[in-house]
Amino acid sequence: MMVIRPVERDDLPQLLALASKTGGGLTSLPVDSATLQARIERSIQTWQDRLPRAEQGYVFVLADSQENRAVGICAIEVAVGLQEPWYNFRVGTQVHASKELNVYANLPILSLSNDHTGSSELCTLFLDPDYRDGKNGYLLSKSRFLFMANFRERFMDRVVAEMRGISDEQGHSPFWESVGSHFFSMSFTQADFLSGTGQKTFIAELMPKHPLYLHYLSPEAQAVIGQVHPKTAPARAVLEAEGFRYRNYIDIFDGGPTLECDIDQIRAIRKSRLQQVDQGEPDVNLPLCLVANNDYHHYRAALLPADMRSDRIVLSAAQAEALKCQPGDSLRVVSLCPEEKKA
To answer: Using an 8 Å Cβ cutoff, are 142 and 340 in contact?
Structure first.
């Protein structure tokens, strides 16, 4: 049985193995032991309430309830930009007009932005390719929403998610070549690694403070603005099904879109409900639902058959053990989107 649980110190070797399979472009999961170890420690300290909100971040892993080996990772940053600036580009418009010459032009531009400061961020979503079958990807991504629903007071009103932009297997990014390379004098891969390992001061020091006209970018760079990497397209579809939208903010490195949604409008949060646990033989003919316990320090989530019309959920002894719950406890339950039930 596959379950979501908080990251543990012993997960470091598995996270390094996962990072080596990303192919680059996932800045928050670099192949760097010290960085990942620090990320694990920060997550543990967040659960222990030892960090201020500006430094808090939760890391979860997907693991088999028997082997306990991490095969996927996802995370939530509680409030971005409160400790150091959180940058992206806003795609906007600048008007140039001359009444005398009868000229009026709307020109698309990129402006450096900190507009998402103070938002909670969904990040670091990656699943081992060997486990991309069934509904593992849905469980990994959406389990965070049930955690946020259970502990709503710990998160901000707006939630954002940066999507990985277009780059090839050699680390070539059309957007970077047309924009970032002119200001940073380094490769996309190097800038990506520095950002992923927390070395972000250079962004504020080197990024242009004035608007950039899109027409000056190469056609290849213009074409990838707001586009996701093929491997990230499924993750984007999952978030959009939950209510997230692209509102003209993009990553400053690869041009990938930033999606956003008001936390209380996220479908899985808005439509989730509590059900009481009964022990017995589950009805396997019921649709799979996202199910999570309400234990902050021992959070568990899984996909199990459940009836959203009922006030009770029946679990086997093994399922109850995997979810760290007992008969009479309450679990938060939400159905999958209609289109996902057919997948």
So the answer is: no
Closest CA to 303 of 7, 62, 60: 62
Candidates 193, 33, 207, 178; CA nearest to 111 is: 207
Token pair listed for 182 = 């002119």
Residue 204 makes CB contacts below 8 A (sequence gap 6+) with: 85, 87
229 belongs to the catalytic site: yes
Range of the domain at 307: 272-341
What value does the CA radius of gyration of the chain take, rounded to a whole number of Å? 21
In a domain, 106, yes or no: no
pTM of the model: 0.91
Q: How far apart are CA 176 and CA 191, in angstroms?
A: 10
State the first-to-last Cα distance of the chain, in angstroms, to the nearest integer. 19
The CATH number of whichever domain residue 260 belongs to comes to 3.40.630.30
Question: Are 204 and 190 part of one and the same domain?
Answer: yes
Q: What is the pLDDT of residues 80-119, one digit of tens each?
A: 999 888 889 999 999 988 888 888 889 999 999 999 999 9
Residue found by looking up tokens 């209510």 in the block:
243
99 within a domain of the structure (yes/no):
no
Q: Considering 236, 268, 300, which residue would you say is the last residue of a domain?
A: 268
The closest of 37, 18, 230, 204 to 124, measured between CA atoms, is 18
Task: Please state, in angstroms and rounded to a whole number, the distance separating the CA atoms of residues 192 and 213.
Answer: 23
Tell me the per-residue pLDDT of 195-247, one tens digit each, with 9 for 90 and over. 766 666 677 677 788 899 999 999 999 999 999 999 889 899 999 999 999 99
Out of 116, 215, 229, 297, the active site residue is 229
Give the SS3 label for residue 274: strand
